[in-house]
Specification:
By secondary structure, this protein is α+β, with helices and mostly antiparallel strands. The chain has 6 helices and 6 strands, in the order H-E-H-H-E-H-H-E-E-E-E-H. The chain has 2 domains: about 100 residues, no CATH class; about 60 residues, Arylsulfatase, C-terminal domain. Helices cover about 20% and strands about 15% of the residues. The two termini are about 35 Å apart.
Length: about 200
């Protein structure tokens, strides 16, 4: 595809974005451990750990994005819609969670997310949630009885649950989880007390 863009002479008018929708799958015959597909991160597709939701994103736009630059900025794929709208000169839709990445792509600063929220399992036997706020990440696997807490700056592989030493932060992130959850009769939560996922 990149070769074709070059052949057509439209590199300076074309933003190319490559990303994944989730981490490696462990379904069917897939064995993420065989290739170490999650890298240093814990988790696989349909879980709330970094190996499931932290994904690569590469962008190329000749003349606009400085080559070989790396950003550690925390973003989510719901930032793509406002990014595309802004770069196309269209109004960014109101009432969405995304924040345009256009400034970041162009080497400028942008407004940051207050926090990021994920959930999975509506209508299935297991419901799980996660929220990231600054360097903190909280994970709730099917039960409000225990919320795991990780400091992603010190522990990106989520190996050390530090909830016991940070009750105030856990309480804050639980509030954010509860505020972010949007119930829907079309997408019901069947069982919030289901067992945690088995480790692979």
């Amino acid at each position: 595809m990149l070769d074709r863009v070059r052949e057509l002479g439209i590199e300076q008018q074309t933003l190319v974005v490559f990303a994944s929708d989730n981490g490696p799958s462990a379904e069917g015959l897939h064995k993420p451990s065989f290739f170490g597909s999650s890298g240093p991160f814990r988790g696989v597709k349909r879980e709330m750990y970094e190996g499931a939701i932290r994904i690569p994103m590469l962008a190329q736009w000749k003349g606009s994005i400085r080559p070989a630059t790396v950003s550690e900025e925390v973003c989510a794929f719901w930032d793509f819609l406002p990014t595309a709208a802004e770069l196309a000169g269209l109004p960014i839709p109101k009432g969405i969670d995304g924040i345009s990445l256009a400034p970041t792509l162009l080497g400028q600063s942008r407004r940051q997310h207050e926090y990021l929220y994920w959930d999975y399992g509506h209508g299935r036997e297991r419901f799980c949630q996660a929220v990231r706020w600054k360097n903190w990440k909280a994970v709730r696997n099917g039960s409000a009885a225990h919320v795991e807490l990780y400091d992603l700056q010190l522990d990106p592989g989520e190996k050390h649950d530090v909830s016991g030493q940070n009750a105030g932060i856990v309480a804050e992130l639980v509030q954010r989880m509860d505020r972010a959850l949007t119930p829907s009769p079309d997408y019901p939560i069947l069982d919030r007390t289901a067992r945690p996922p088995s480790r692979r």
